[in-house]
UniProtKB/TrEMBL annotation:
InterPro entries: AAA+_ATPase, Disease_R_plants, HTH_VMAP-M9, NB-ARC, P-loop_NTPase
Source organism (scientific name): Planktothricoides raciborskii GIHE-MW2
Sorted UniProt keywords: ATP-binding, Nucleotide-binding
Lineage: Bacteria, Bacillati, Cyanobacteriota, Cyanophyceae, Oscillatoriophycideae
GO molecular function, one term: ATP binding
Name by which UniProt lists this protein: ATP-binding protein
The keyword Nucleotide-binding is annotated on this UniProt entry: yes
Domain AAA+ ATPase residue range list: 156-300
Amino acid sequence: MDITDVLNLAEALIFMKTGKHLDHLQKAVLQGTFEGKTYTEIAAETYQSEGHVRNTGSELWKVLSAELKEEINKSNFRAVIEKVEFKNFSADNVGHVTVNNLNFCRESKLATTGNQQPEKKTPKQHLNLGDAPEITAFYGRKEELATLQNWILEKNSRLIAILGLRGIGKTTLALQLLEQIKPEFDYIIYRSLRFSPTPETTLSNLLEIFSPSDIPNNIETQICQLLEYLRQYRCLIVLDDVQMLFTAQKLAGHYKIGGENYQRFFKLMAEVSHNSCLILIGSEKPREIANYEKENKYCRSLVLSGLGIEAEEILRQQNLSDESSWESLIEIYQGNPHWLKLTATLIHELCGGRVADFLQFEMPIISDSLAELLDDALERLTEAEKSTIYHISQAAEPVSLGQIFQEIQMSSTDLFNVMHSLKRRFLVEDIPQDKINFFTVNPVFKAYGKKDG
């Protein structure tokens, strides 16, 4: 018995019992188990949490055990299933299946009498969050939530990018938004692109949510089919970690080889009429988004800055003392929630949780954990970007493009492209003054850059 027979048998038995076809994850669990893969490996391949994969497997083993009258688990699944004699069957048009000379009939609902009205079905909401992180706390962001809600529900935006430095709270904001507006949608979907899947893989994964069978291989057909579903249903799709689609050590927004069709997909999401919304989350702004939002009222982007006074709640939950010093700590670490949490751990371990004692030292102090985050961002830069950041970091005051040009050996074209790229990575900030734009580096990166330079 090969994997096709295994899936056909499981499809038949599950359909007989539940009236439902196998979904993408159930098929992946069955195939992965048949091939000897672990739940961890299956989870990585399907972009699901290991816990969710285990639960799916557990439910499958229960149904199959009951139907085959034999105890089935992950360890013995292949051995048991290979002993089964199975007659081919189509679950769409047949009401029974024969396995080991036993007939299984699909469970039927009670027939309605002449006096009974058919039960009205209400549309079912589909929540498919994949490996979305759990929100344990949410701070502030009322204005940002209101803006996003307005764009989606009132302005009918089709393509939205939530952007900003790593740790600033982009994913948390998006998941909080989903929680608030999910009653307005038929499908709520979250996927992370952290492992840089190909466009074909991502689109197949999305299509399988709507219809597990007949997934086209052609990218154009995949996009067209998905757009048809997005017209038929109102869907809110979140694609996180978009920066992982881009090549490191190249200017921001250059797609990896084979990933160019993401650009076509995003473009059509903004241009083609449909009832849904795609939210992109990332620490690099896709180059095409800037063009789309100028030309297309259905495309928008939101760049997150740090928290203000709301960040005090983070320090309160971290049980730090010296509340009068919290504002200074928040300002030093730019109100970045993750940076503050990492720094709070350092304050606890070395200063007994006393913020005032910590602030006596030269700021900002970069913990090893925070340095790893900063390194991740800096390692994606080109050599020209690193050189430019270093030179800006050495300046005591913000500098103009002319001043930067005098300091480094680079053509005007290269300088403009480098600065544009650094802005799309949110590593430099511009400060308009007397009709001249001056530039500075994020203070935490500036301090780290000086140390590294």
